[in-house]
Specification:
Layout (H helix, E strand, L loop, with lengths): L7 E2 L5 E2 L2 H4 L8 E5 L4 E5 L5 H11 L8 H16 L1
Antiparallel strand pairs: 1-2, 3-4
C-alpha cells in the first residue's frame, strides 16, 4: 500500500522522519537513495552472499595491472595517517 507522508528538513540539513517511517529502517542496514527530477526514493540495499560476490569477481577476470605488496602497504599507511587526523 502506498502512503504519502510529509517530512521536514531542519536548518542543519537533517530530515525529520516520523516514528512510523523510522521504525521501518534498521540500524546498521544500508539504503540506496534514488533520485530523479521530482522524486527521492529510499530502497534497502541488498546484501550479497559470499558466493554471489565470488561469482561477480570471476566475471571481472584478472586485473591487468595488479598492485604490488609494497603499493598496498603504502596505501594502507596513507589511509591510516588520514584516519588519525
Amino acid at each position: 500500500m502506498q502512503k504519502t507522508i510529509t517530512i521536514n528538513l531542519t536548518p542543519e540539513g537533517d530530515l525529520q522522519l516520523p516514528l512510523e517511517i523510522r521504525e521501518q529502517f534498521s540500524n546498521g542496514e544500508q539504503y540506496l537513495v534514488i533520485t530523479s527530477e521530482n522524486t527521492i526514493t529510499f530502497k534497502k540495499a541488498t546484501k550479497l552472499s559470499w558466493q554471489e560476490l565470488r561469482e561477480k569477481r570471476q566475471l571481472l577476470g584478472s586485473d591487468p595491472n595488479p598492485l604490488t605488496n609494497e603499493e598496498i602497504c603504502e596505501i594502507v599507511k596513507e589511509v591510516r595517517k588520514e584516519a588519525a587526523i
